[in-house]
Amino acid sequence: MKKILIVLCCLAMANGLFAQQALFNSSSVVSPETNPDGSVTFRLYYPKAVTVQVSGDFLPQKKVHVNFGGRSMAIDVTGSADMKEDTAGVWSYTSDPLDPELYSYGFIVNGMKYPDPSNIYRNRDVSTWTNIFIIAKSEGDKGYLYSVNKVPHGNLEKVWYASPSLKLERRMTIYTPAGYEEGKGKYPVLYLLHGAGGDENAWSELGRAAQIMDNMIANGKAKPMIVVMPNGNANTSAAPGEWSAGMYQPSLGFGGGKGPDFGKPAASMEQSFPDIVKYVESHYRVLKGQYDRAMCGLSMGGGQTFSTTMLYPSMFGYIGLFSPGLSLGKGSSGGKSFLDAMNSDSEFQTDIAALFAAKPRLYWIGIGKTDFLYSPVADLRTYLDAHGYPYEYMETDGGHIWRNWRIYLTVFAGKLFK
Fold this sequence. Notes:
Number of domains: 2
Shape: globular
Distance between the termini: 78 Å
């Protein structure tokens, strides 16, 4: 028995030493490292690898064709670059000087995706984890806005609320600005929606919403406001693994996951939205007028904003569509363009006329030049122009990406409640 115990102890010590060696090997590699000229060096210790690449949104993008909704479309994907190995088994690559921004990246080792073990900072986008880093050069640039700076900070909380419309207990993320806890005054509210495959964590993590609001409010670029970030999947309660459905695999599909049969929701997200507003207005010190409420969203959330604000035309005074997934909710368009669908749908025409008759102070649209949803957004603009409905429009480089949506939030938030 003593011999067995000695052997087990030796094995445990060997495993511990091996783990420590792996820890020290990874911790001795600095990655990513920002250089004085703004370039970034990436490193990976992997002495037995055959090929190693870095892939990230700081590299030129590539176009690939995918099948989406039964049709083929070209989308932008992150580029990659070969890394070089030194005599110590460390692979490295140095980028060109980079502009201020939040960047995502990862490694590809022998054809397999691999996280950077030297960088603890990561984000989950649907079912993909990527490392992140921020380049900031001056106060007020994008990197600064997305960073945690020495300014007064608001609070983030995850709250559960009852949704009678959906027959579910649901969760959302709520940002309260610095000073809210002092218990003085009431605040306007921005309802901020995520895209397909996302959840109530998306805007606070991928979108850096809290950092953006902290920095903009502190610098006088935005009014102090409460930001409500609900889960836009009407047949789920919360983010994957954070409600009773368990640790299922998230996907872009409606409902946010594969695995359990979530079933058909009792109502649409648009129909259930008053449940969210009711909870917020009964649990937080908020102003309750039309011009004290704003709603915006990206992709699927932009489509939900488009539909919700027509369903409740006097509820929101500020409306933002970020790369919106536009639909009239009538199923297949039968080959029609979105413009033809709008021009032939009398119900839509009545609804959007009622929305603009309610006089929203801002109807704001933003999209990237290479976004695969560019065409229907252009159709919407044509329709609005033809009917004299006022709106503001912003077009940026790039496609259907968080880099654009963070910009849109920054611009939109700066126009609210003034």
